[in-house]
Amino acid sequence: MSMQLPQAAARAWSDPAVRRRIVDMHDRGDSLLDMVAALDLDEALDRDGLRDIVANLSDAEVQVIRDAFRAEAQQVGDNPGASFPIDCRVDDTTAGVRVSAAPAGRGATAPVARIENR
């Protein structure tokens, strides 16, 4: 299943100014749904059927995601070539997900948050 939200979010993340904005939102503790809205990604979120999944992530799962974004942003700074720190493998939006920290992938410098079906 090709999901539109991770692709749209990765495009946004590639812009250093947007990347700084995303990290600031993580640092403030903004909810992930508020962040999606602030980045104008609601349509992709809903098209992928991920709203309930994102809304029901545990605090620990959200922290894994926040840590991955912060680590990648710290590694790359304002330079181009930032890797999107999410590996989203959700094929069935009704099955629930598991979020875990995964080692950096090929060409990446920081760990990623892997989101996959349970």
User: In total, how many domains does the architecture comprise?
Assistant: 1
State the end-to-end CA separation: 16 Å
- Helix content range: 40-55%
- What is the N-to-C order of secondary-structure elements (H for helix, E for strand)? HHHHHHEEE
Give the number of DSSP strands.
3
- Weakly predicted, low-confidence segments: none
**Major pleated sheet:** 3 strands, mixed
Mean pLDDT: 91
Principal-axes geometry comes out as: globular
Fraction of residues in β-strands: 5-15%
Radius of gyration: 13 Å
Strand order of the largest sheet: 1-3-2
The helix count comes to 6
Structural class: alpha+beta
Could you walk me through the main structural features you see in this protein, from its secondary elements to its overall organization?
The protein is of the alpha+beta class and 118 residues long. It has one domain (4-117). It has helices spanning 4-13, 16-28, 32-38, 42-48, 51-55, 59-76; strands at residues 86-89, 97-102, 112-117. Helix 2 (16-28) packs antiparallel against helix 6. The protein is globular, with a radius of gyration of 13 Å.
